[in-house]
Amino acid sequence: MTTQESSNVTSSLDSFRSDVRRWLRENFPACLAGLDALYDPKEATALHNSAEYRRWTNLIRDKGWGAPGWPVAYGGGGLDAEQVEVLDQELAQVGGVNPIAGLGKMMLGPTLLEFGTEEQKRRHLPPMARGEVRWCQGFSEPGSGSDLASLQTRCEDRGEHWLVNGQKIWTSFASVSDWCFCLVRTDTSSKQGGITFLLIDMRTPGIEVRPIELINGATHFCEVFLNDVQVPKAETLGPVNDGWTVAKRLMQHERNGLSENRRAKLDILPLALEYVGLDDQGRLADPDLRLRLVDHMVTSTAFEATMRRQADARERGLRDAIAVSALKNVGALVAQERYDLAVEILGNHSLGWVAQGDAIQEEHIVRDWLFSRAFSIYGGAHEIQNNITAKHVLQLPS
Length: 398
What we know:
By secondary structure, the chain is of the alpha+beta class. It is 47% helix and 12% strand.
């Protein structure tokens, strides 16, 4: 790229940033500032039904920024990676959140763009981009967590349709989802070569969902039982018996999305100033905490910079330039450290629980800290990610 071309790109991005900033100033409801992900379906549903949240959702949807990087033909905003990054930065500046979220948009959407038929893309992607349909992920099974390819949910060819029987577990948001992207076994003679990727309507007869209550009080995890569930052949994503290839690509999007979610959303410096205070020299009063806060902020900033490098690499077609498995692990550790520090800063204010008179901020931090224990497990455990990095990035022997 010449100096002139580089200058033009910068100028265009600056202009786009100004437009985004002005649009947010005119449209983002200030009362929604600071919202984070809600893992409790009841809380999330109550929030999503509020007038201001619905208004904000409609504005983002109509702007095409629900899925800003997807093609316009499939309901996206048609923005490039740098523009998406600018949009995310400006949203963060006002404490805003993109209300069009979920597993469908984060994982299945980009996978459908790569592997889906034209009919599947036009049917499933626009409702995801508008936030009208919720998706859950039917991958893990009671005996197939870290060794995902050992899954046993049976799928038989019954001519016009598939017949599915089995059980899934740790299925996030299954109790409130409309559809499920699911791995099933269509050939028992081959482990990874006998898996097929299906899109299953959760209203199909034979599907039973049982929520599981977690340590943080939320119940977004579920067991899903599939008993003689009929799935149309048209809902097969990718070739029969080659669902593992599709799943591997989806899991890359999952790890990338989880890394994105680990980016700093809880600013612990103001929290430390509020709960710990300053010494007579104007420094954070606890010198040991001060040192560890600085160390965390340096690591967190380096992680943010690497995430931006990754977005830039993707934009230039260098999809595997940065190992997403390594980023997933680093992001999990950074986020867990952030919540560890936050709870330490709260001190005895972190000992309360729901409806015991604690401030909403304190309750949410404690619940998020409890949930953060799962960051290094879900989406592929820490050890699984290290194995992937060792084999596929460092080319180490098995």
